[in-house]
Amino acid sequence: MSIQVFGLAVARGVAIGRAVLVTSGRVDVAHYFVAPDQVEGEIARLSDARDAVAAEFTTLQRDMPADAPPELSALIDVHLMLVHDESLIGAAAQWVRERHYNAEWALSAQLEVLARHFDEMEDEYLRERKADLEQVTERILTALTRNARGDRAISTPGAGDFGGEEPLVLVASDISPADMLHFKRSVFTGFVTDVGGRTSHTAIVARSMDIPAVVGAREASRLIRQDDWVVIDGDAGAVIVNPPPIVLEEYRFRQRQHELERARLNRLRHTPALTLDGEAVELLANIELPEDAAVALEAGAVGVGLFRSEFLFMNRGQDLPGEDEQFEAYRAAVLAMKGLPVTIRTVDIGADKPLDRLTLHELRHEHTLNPALGLRAIRWSLAEPSMFRQQLRAILRASAYGKVKLLLPMVAHLSEARLTREALVRAKQQLRDAGHAFTDIEVGAMIEIPAAALMLGSLLRHFDFVSIGTNDLIQYTLAIDRADEQVAHLYDAWHPAVVGLIASTIERTNAAGKSVSVCGEMAGDPSFTALLLSMGLRSFSMHPRQIAAVKQAVLRADTRKLRAVLPQVLAADEPQAAAEAVFATQRN
Question: Do 519 and 583 belong to one domain?
């Protein structure tokens, strides 16, 4: 039976594929793919965990007191039977063989399949046995986690490694940033999540990967089953499950149209970004890992405007990267950019990007009253001075191999600028003492808190450049949790207060003779290109896949005409409607 689910459209296009469910339960489950030569070892892990749990139950039964109620022994018998049932472990092993899921993911996927079977049983007693199945599975998952080796290699195989050519779409209640990092280069053609907003981490990564996504779809992970055929309409925010053939064919046609449009835009990647009136515009790339630099160059980026260094720290447990490992990563990105500038942001940990709970337990959402306003970004770095200086030393050392800039996230106080400068002085002295080469680097601040925008004049005296992080600036200006689908409709990049703050920041920075860029989602959205150009912005930083579409908008713009009508947009109660009207007039 075909069903439809609706959510927020966050990444355009059409995706069609078999559903892969990532479930969330009481036990945290890692989700990643294993390489072909690791499949048998992963299946052995499943068997070992099952045997360990079976041994626990056998020991419990053997040591049971003589006066124990007979029901307890009967319950253990049921659990032992479930542990050895091939429909659990045997079927989970098939997920490993066919899809190359890691053992934990395979087991949770099979639990989802079996749990639905129990829900559909008419007999109430049998339906209630689902709780026993869940308890047994969680014991096995705990055993897997307890016996997991920290040095397992994680890979992202291609579609051909899954025993078939059928495309896959990912369906989840939510997807953690760490999981998204693993899925980033994998086989998924689209994402669907129950929760999230237009600028939640899942939405941002989906757009950066240029694949269709729908978030905030509420019941999607409950209604969609493993291996269902799913169509994701990233334009309308619709998810169609098991569509009839005529609907499926219509979406296949739309999918081909999107692919043709991508190919057409791709031809612009090495065309200089010049407006009609000859203004040069700098189109930079946002990257998360050193290997992304090659993708940025291929897309025509003229530098890296934002290297999100926190992704080097995530999903590491207690094994955080040291100075040398960070240095090697930064140097690799700098060398890959072949002399083009690389702006490295210090770790933006916290909010929707917590470190592993074994490392910073207090940063997990459930233990923080309001993570978006807590110990995160530059606040966290300054609270960990040893680790902060370690990162500063690594960045400084990388500067000996190319043009490097340093960017500080979530700046709101002059004391943060002063303390960072002091930490830089100490880091430089430590490098001199150790005989390491480095160069002086420019230091910039991210403008993503309204206070920073309002006190910009003071900040500019302490920083060499600024970069506007529109995602958080919108969130903090409007007091909207950008990851909460219940208030996602209130997250408005066109809000007059937001547009005014951005325009003021760009104008005042330009007047001070310092450089300003935008590195948030607005930079990669062609519908904002004319607005930002009219404000005087000449430096945009976005995911490499978004560069071609923004470049097309730049090539069609005349900044003199746009600048002339900007006052009408800034004075309007509805800036979006005003911009659409006056900018359209200028294009004609």
Answer: yes
